[in-house]
From TrEMBL:
Gene Ontology MF, one: manganese ion binding
InterPro entries, per database record: Leucine_aapep/pepB (IPR011356), Macro_dom-like (IPR043472), Peptidase_M17_C (IPR000819), Peptidase_M17_leu_NH2_pept (IPR023042)
GO BP terms: proteolysis
Organism: Salpingoeca rosetta (strain ATCC 50818 / BSB-021)
Keywords, comma-separated and alphabetical: Aminopeptidase, Hydrolase, Protease
Reaction equations catalysed: Release of an N-terminal amino acid, Xaa-|-Yaa-, in which Xaa is preferably Leu, but may be other amino acids including Pro although not Arg or Lys, and Yaa may be Pro. Amino acid amides and methyl esters are also readily hydrolyzed, but rates on arylamides are exceedingly low
Protein name, as recorded: leucyl aminopeptidase
Enzyme Commission number(s) from the entry: 3.4.11.1
Gene3D superfamilies reported for this sequence: Leucine Aminopeptidase, subunit E, domain 1, Zn peptidases
SUPFAM superfamilies the record matches: Zn-dependent exopeptidases (SSF53187)
Length: 502
C-alpha cells in the first residue's frame, strides 16, 4: 500500500453548476467569419471548373475543399447524394448531418468562433435538411471542459452562426430549444457524481423551474419518502451520504381539465451496484446512470422554452446506489408504494425499484392518461441494440407509433421490443409478490420492462424507453464526442410538440 505524507487534499469543486452552455446557443440572420457550403460532388466540380487549386481526387477522398477569397476562409463540404431516393429521403438527410458534423469539427479545430453555413437541396427536403443541419451545428461543437485548467488546452466552440437554406435564412425554434435542452442533459451527465448528486441535480431543476416559470414539487430524504410509502426508493438511497429524493417539475399550460403527460426519469447519480458490487471496467462510467433524469430535465427546459400549450409533469427519481453498513441487501423484501412487496433479486437492479415508486406516485398524484419513463436500465438492451437506438416497450400502439415517428425525425431512434407472458411469469417471487430480477438470465430488457409494467395502473397508456445503449459514447460519433449524449431529450421534445399540435 502506498502511504501519502501529510494531509490528503481534495479538489474544491462547485455544486452542480447551472450549465454553462459551452456550445452554440444562438443562430443569427447573418454572421461574419468563415463560410461553409454543403454541396454535392458534381455541383462542386461544376462550380470549381477551371480553378487551378481544385483537385477532384483530393476532394473525393477528403470530402472537403477549402479556398480563400477576400481574406475569408471558404469551405465546401461534399454531401453524398447517391442515396437521395432511398428510405424516403431520410438517408440523404443523414448525409447532410454527417457533412454538418464534419464542418463543425473542422472549424472548432481551427479555433473558429463564427461562421455562415449555406445549404442547397430539393425544395421538398428544405425543412428536414434545415432542421438536421441546425441540430448538428448546435450539438457537434459541445465540450465539457470544466476541469481543464490550462486555457490553451480547452477546445473552442462556435459561438455565433447563421444558416441559409436555398438562399433564405433558416431558423427553427423547436430544434434550437431541444438542442439547448440536450446540452443541459449532457452537462449533467458529464458532471461527476460528487457534484451531480441528488441534491445537485435537484438544485439545477429548481433553477430551470425558476427561469422558465415551472412549478417544482419535491419529496426529500428517507423519512419523507417513507411517509409517502416510497420504501423502494428510500431503500436504494439508504447506503449513501446523499439523501434520495423525488423532484416533480410541472409545466401546466394546456387546458385546465386535460390530464398531464407524465415523464419519469431514472436518476441514479452513481451506481456502484450496491452490495452486488460492479467490477472494474464497468463501474467507472456509472455517473451516467442518471441519463433518464437528464433527458427529462432537458425536455422540461425545452418545452418551457417553447411555451408548448400542453400539460406535462417531469418526475426525477434521484438516488445514489452506494455501499456501506446501511446499504440495502440482496433478497431483502420491501413494500412498494403500490402495496406490492418486492424481493430484491440483485442490488444492481436498483433503477427499476426507484422507477416503480416514482411511477406509482406520479399516477396517484397527477392522474395521467399517458406516462413515459426513460432509463439507462439494462445491459441486455445494449446487447440487443448497441449504441444505435433505444428499446421501446409500450402497452399502446398509438403511443408506440408516435414515439417511433418522433425519434426517427430527430436521430434518436427507438425500436419496439416485446413483453411476453413468460417475462411476467419469471417475476413471481418465492417470498414476496414479485422478484425484481426474475429467474432467467435471458431477455433481461423485457423482464425489467415487465417489472415496471406491473406498477402501471389500468387504462394508463405507458411507454418505457431503455436508453442504456445510446445514453453515452466511449468515442466520438456524429454530433457527439465521448461522454453523455442526453439521448431522449430530442425524442421527448418532438413527441410532446407533436402532441400539443394535434
Amino acid at each position: 500500500m502506498m502511504m501519502l505524507r501529510g494531509s490528503v487534499r481534495r479538489m474544491t469543486i462547485q455544486a452542480a453548476a447551472y450549465p454553462r452552455f459551452n456550445a452554440l446557443t444562438k443562430v443569427s440572420a447573418s454572421t461574419a467569419g468563415d463560410e461553409v457550403h454543403f454541396v454535392t460532388e458534381d455541383a462542386l466540380k461544376r462550380k470549381m471548373e477551371g480553378s487551378s487549386s481544385f483537385n477532384a481526387e483530393d476532394v473525393k477522398k477528403e470530402k472537403v475543399f477549402r479556398e480563400y477569397k477576400d481574406g475569408k476562409r471558404i469551405f465546401h463540404f461534399v454531401v453524398d447524394d447517391s442515396k437521395k431516393n432511398t428510405n424516403g429521403g431520410k438517408d440523404l438527410v443523414a448525409e447532410y448531418r454527417k457533412a454538418a458534423c464534419s464542418a463543425v469539427q473542422r472549424l472548432t479545430s481551427l479555433k473558429s468562433t463564427a461562421a455562415s453555413f449555406f445549404v442547397e437541396c430539393e425544395d421538398d427536403a428544405k425543412s428536414d435538411v434545415g432542421k438536421t443541419v441546425l441540430q448538428s451545428l448546435m450539438l457537434a461543437g459541445y465540450s465539457f471542459d470544466k476541469y481543464i485548467t490550462v486555457e490553451d488546452k480547452k477546445p473552442s466552440f462556435l459561438q455565433d452562426v447563421s444558416l441559409h437554406v436555398n438562399g433564405s435564412s433558416f431558423q427553427d425554434a423547436e430544434t434550437i430549444a431541444a438542442s439547448k435542452g440536450t446540452v443541459l442533459a449532457r452537462d449533467l451527465m458529464n458532471e461527476r457524481a460528487d457534484v451531480a448528486n441528488p441534491k445537485g441535480i435537484h438544485d439545477v431543476a429548481e433553477r430551470v423551474a425558476a427561469d422558465f416559470n415551472l412549478n417544482c414539487h419535491s419529496i426529500v430524504g428517507i423519512p419523507a419518502l417513507d411517509h409517502e410509502r416510497m420504501h423502494l426508493m428510500s431503500a436504494v438511497g439508504q447506503g449513501s451520504r446523499f439523501e434520495p429524493r423525488l423532484v416533480c417539475l410541472e409545466h401546466m399550460r394546456g387546458p385546465t381539465d386535460a390530464p398531464p403527460v407524465v415523464l419519469v426519469g431514472k436518476g441514479i447519480t452513481f451506481d456502484t451496484g450496491g452490495l452486488n458490487l460492479k467490477p472494474t471496467n464497468f463501474i467507472e462510467t456509472m455517473h451516467y446512470d442518471m441519463g433518464g433524469t437528464a433527458a427529462v430535465l432537458g425536455t422540461m427546459r425545452a418545452i418551457a422554452d417553447l411555451n408548448l400549450p400542453i400539460n406535462v409533469v417531469g418526475v426525477l427519481a434521484l438516488a445514489e446506489n452506494a455501499i456501506g453498513s446501511g446499504a440495502y441487501k440482496p433478497m431483502a423484501v420491501i413494500q412498494s408504494r403500490s402495496g406490492k412487496t418486492v424481493e430484491v433479486g440483485n442490488t444492481d437492479a436498483e433503477g427499476r425499484l426507484v422507477l416503480a415508486d416514482a411511477l406509482t406516485y406520479a399516477q396517484d398524484r397527477y392522474k395521467p392518461t399517458t406516462v413515459v419513463d426513460v432509463a439507462t436500465l439494462t445491459g441486455a438492451c445494449v446487447v440487443a441494440l448497441g449504441p444505435y437506438g433505444a428499446g421501446l416497450f409500450t402497452n399502446n400502439d398509438d403511443l408506440q407509433s408516435s414515439l417511433v415517428t418522433a425519434g426517427s425525425s430527430v436521430f434518436e431512434r427507438v425500436w419496439p421490443l416485446p413483453i411476453f407472458p413468460e417475462h411476467r411469469e419469471e417475476l413471481k417471487g418465492a417470498f414476496a409478490d414479485i422478484n425484481s430480477t426474475g429467474t432467467s438470465r435471458y431477455g433481461g430488457a423485457s423482464t425489467a420492462a415487465a417489472f415496471l409494467e406491473s406498477f402501471i395502473q389500468d387504462s394508463v397508456h405507458w411507454a418505457h424507453v431503455d436508453i442504456a445503449g445510446p445514453s453515452d459514447y466511449s468515442k466520438a460519433s456524429g454530433p457527439f464526442n465521448a461522454g453523455g449524449t442526453g439521448f431522449g431529450t430530442q425524442l421527448l421534445t418532438r413527441y410532446l410538440a407533436a402532441t400539443a399540435a394535434a
